[in-house]
Amino acid sequence: MLLRQVLGLGPLQGVLASAQHAFSTGSYDGIASTGSGTVEANLNVSTLHLSSVGSDEYTILSHPRFPYHQVRVKKSDFCDPTVNVYTGYLDVDYGAKHLFFYFFESRNDRDKDDVMMWINGGPGCSSSMGLLMELGPCQIDMKNVSSNGTVWNPYSWNNNANIFFLDQPVGVGFSYADHGETIETTEDAAKNVYAFISIFFETFSQFAGRPFHMSGESYGGRYLPVFASQVVDQNKLAAVEGRPIINLKSVLIGNGNTGISTMYEGRYEIECGKAALDVPFQKISQCVRMKMALPRCTEAMEKHCGNNFDSLDCAAAVAFCDNELSTGYWASGRNVYDISKMCLGDSLCYLENSAIKAYLDLPSTRSLLGVTSPRNFSACSSDVGRLFVSHMDKWSHPTEFYVAGLLHRGVRMLIYAGTYDWQCNWVANKLWVDKMDWVGKDEYNEAKWRDWTIGGGKVGETKSAGGLTFATIRGAGHMVPHDKPAESLVMVQRWLAGKSL
């Protein structure tokens, strides 16, 4: 592995051009021309400590196994003054594509605590949303009480973990491509995510071998099982070749879009049953229409999107299901991520989204983070979303197969869900988990549900077997750490400690 440092945070075309030649020829010697002299960086990366990364320059890291990738990282004063904070980019395809990330060391014990990754979903939504309105060290200031636009979050998940937030795939958030390219499938995105994780662990020796946990929500229910599977498969190759492996311990999925065939059945129960509210809000006539359409929808989804995938027939099945089983909810004006609230602001239904965009578009914020994207920040990229849909990404591969494969290989899985979510609801998640064909299926289905509590107060229900845990969080919507911050932190603390909920 190789390290070099480049002064300044501006365009890197000249440096990258010389790096491209060096990477391709294998002649790179760790000295980069910067226009203001050269910086010697012939360091043994096995001894590199993250604290050696400066705040006035990007440290650029490369790896011989990833000749088309490099990582730029700098120290930052962003968000949490109590820990070391780093931001930067994973540059892909000789620097033509750039994935942005934030990294926060643990508030507890950075030298011993586990490492965690968080991604948001979409597809095409920025993990900055999870950072600034859910589980990050600071939250967007919605009351104008701070001097810097954010407020301290005492319930941040970096209370007990070193955590990074990754904007992926390219085209999302502050991630961008020089020529507008993007990734169009989860399987392709997994290659870049694995490269980033590998370079990180193999470069910063203080984290080598640490337990690693991959977490996220929503379309993360599709992303994470595939990304984690890439890590497991590559670990097997690394072990054969005598290379370091990534110590992947678990995957945490919140209100995930994983078992797509059960989503509509779950939505019916949320709207017309008592799965969310004691008294259903939906009109009886609409519920009757949904009930009559549900068997046809379920049959078509299983036939054309699951058992024998056909892109045209699957698209037709999805269109039918959406028309018959989703339009009534959209017409209600309610928040699709929290059935107990009305939709506010834009289509994402939370006023925080506009505030986060305004904050991240400030020149001072971009400078603090070292952002080099030529575009303004966007919470979700419609272009990325359309491309994933055009490839039928969430329908073409049953993601629960990846979950089963991970469980078979000893990776623990936490599937948690707020009960007020409609979009990726808890009922749908329970149904696909119950149906999943895996080695512990019988043991899991025979296990008993129990309440899980904090200080004697009920938070939700849970059950576990063979590395798999399912948990509900009562009264939370799609974004559990936003709605139930204290409860979500305790959940994560228990999970990281290997304790039952």
TrEMBL record:
Source domain of life: Eukaryota
Enzyme class: hydrolase
E.C. number(s) listed in UniProt: 3.4.16.-
Keywords: Carboxypeptidase, Glycoprotein, Hydrolase, Protease, Signal
Classification via PROSITE patterns: CARBOXYPEPT_SER_HIS, CARBOXYPEPT_SER_SER
Any one GO BP annotation for this protein: proteolysis
Cellular component per GO, a single term: fungal-type vacuole
Molecular function GO labels: serine-type carboxypeptidase activity
A Pfam family reported for this protein in Swiss-Prot or TrEMBL: Peptidase_S10
Keyword Protease: yes
Assigned protein family: Belongs to the peptidase S10 family.
Name of the protein in question: Carboxypeptidase
The species this protein was found in: Neolentinus lepideus HHB14362 ss-1
